[in-house]
Structure formats: C-alpha cells, structure tokens
Design goal:
alpha+beta
Amino acid sequence: MGSRQGRAGLGQPWQPSHLLLLIPVVLIVVITAADLASGPNIVLGPLLVVAPALTAWFAGPWTTGGIGVLAMAGEAVSGWHTGALSSRNVVVEMIAIAVITSLIVFLCAVRDRHARQMARVRSVAEAAQRVLMWPLPSRLGPLRLACVYLAAEEEADVGGDLYAAARTDNAARVMIGDVRGKGLPALGEAALLLGAFREAAHQHASLPDLAASLERSMTRYLADFEPEGEAGERFVTALLVEIADTEPLVRMTSCGHPAPLLLGPDNTVHVPRLHPGPPLGVGVTDPDNHVVDVLPFGPGDTLVLYTDGVIEARDQNGVFYPFAERAAQWTDQPPEALLHHIERDLLAHTGGRLGDDVALLAIRRARIPHPDHHLQRVQRDTPASAGSSCGT
C-alpha cells in the first residue's frame, strides 16, 4: 500500500556527522583569528553567534549549547588578547552570545519535542493502518491487485477511506468505501465496515444481500455510537465488486459510490453508468434497493476503483484532476506501475496537498480458465443481464 513515506523521518533523533560539526568549530576559529588580527577599531566578536545558529540547523539542543559555549570562549580569548576582557563591550558581547544561544537551544528543544510527538502520532496511525487496512495480496485467483492509500492529514497514514478483498469458492469480492469525513475521526466507521465485510462476504450469495448485511451492521453501530448532534449525518459510500474466476464479467453494486474506470488493453477508458443505491448507514436494509450492474471484464482489462478524493482533487487554480484522461496514458501498465503513475501525477497536480483522503485499487484480469466455453455462454447471457452501458 502506498503512502507518503517521506514524512516518516520526522521523529528520528538528530545525528550530525563529525564533518558538519567541523563547520561551526572552524567558523569560530576563523572569526576569532580575524578579530585578533583586525585590531581594536574593527570588532568581529558578535559574529560568533552565527556558529550556534548554524548548528541548530542539523543538531540537537545539547550540541548547539556546546557550540554556543565555544563561541563565548572565542570571544573571551579575543578580549583577553587585547586586554579588554573585563571591559563593558566584551562583557556585553559575551552576555549577548549567551542569551541568543539560550534562545536557540530552547527553540531546538521545542522542535525536537514536536518531532517526538509527531513520531508517536505516526506510530499510532501506522498501527491502526496495519490493524484496519490488511495488505491486499498481489494475486487473488486469476486477478492481479495493487492499491494505494494517501491520507489527507499530514500526521496520519490512514483515515476515512477503505478497501478490502475476500476470496470465495469461485470468485473474488472487493469493496472500496469512503466514510463521511476524513482522517482519524472517521476510523470508527471504517473499522466497523471492514470487519463486517470480511465476515459477510462469505455468507451472502448476491451483492444486494451483502449490501443489506453491511447496512444492518452500520445501523447497529450508529445506533450505539453516533453522536446526538450528528444523527443522520454519518454514512459511508461503498462499491461492491464481484469477479468470477470463469466468466469474463464483473458484477458491481454501488452504494452511492463513484463508478470505477474500466481500462482496456487497446488503450481505451470506459466509465460505467451504474445504478447507485443509498449509502450505507442511512437505514435502508431492503436488498431490492440495490442493483447489480454487469459489465464485460476479460483478460487484459483493468478495473480502477477509487474514492472521491481523486476526482475532487484540485490544483492551485481550482481545476479538478482529470482522472480518466490521465489514466488513459498508462492503460498498458501492470496494476502496480499504473497506480504509481497515477499517484505521482495526482500529487504533482495538487502540489502535494490533498483536500481529502485518497484510496486507489487496480484489478487486472490475468486469465480465464476454459475461456472458449464460458465466452460463448457470456455472449448469450450478457445482453439480458447487463445492468448498464459504458461511456467514454
């Protein structure tokens, strides 16, 4: 699962190299020597405060304080050499270096404390991510899978978007969902829905029955834990997908979720016109409210599931991310490479600042056992059973 891992180093202890430490030390020596050689009319001692300020860029408070002490020693050597160590100017300069160094050390300590807090928050988010978002297998029967998760909140690796996959006797079932809200506050609904799907995916023969079961689970949860001031405002959009091993078809039931992209091996991109049902959590438990849409899905086809954080992402001028248009550039790529390109392109479009959590899941049909026999059956059955058409 992908995420912005570049922030992970925030909580690491500062480890300045000996080479970097030589820079402020040499600077102190050079400034002191120049002050001694310049004579009484040119005073360079106050420049020594640059050394601890520079050290704070790469070192912690203790090292910065030590460099500050060396800077004061350099000022003392210069005053002693000129015989003015006890003069008012030298004393004031040493006090000024001490005060500024103390301020820099304080800021270093605050910075390091914040870094440790960020590291603790990240460790909690990573633990929640491991518990909730189980890593999806790269293969599930005849399917190849890849996924990416990008949290909108800088301190989180997981939020209100979710996905899961389950293997039944002769098919794979996949869910992608988006909890109303984002970041850590949405974890409760996400955890509940993921657990309910992993259990119910094996117990219900049809996708509408599965959607009704998930709705009942959400209704029970919200009845117990929904805040009084948010009654009726907590819900989850979800897309349920079923792909049989031996049929070049994909069945989908949308619970208010955006339709996926269907990428063909001939560089085509289709956006299915689904029949969305109500989101999960609004109390509609009748399976008849959910429609199954059936689409062709043969070898080489790729299905890209996503949450609305992708299509609602904007650049600095407010322009939405042209998802289908950009994805058309990489239809020939395997799922992992496809999502890698989309992730980089999306972050470049938004300048690295996402307004909402983003989840992406790519599924490619690798093969179909006994394709000739089942393709003939699909050609007979598809016109009567298909629930939607595709548009570009």
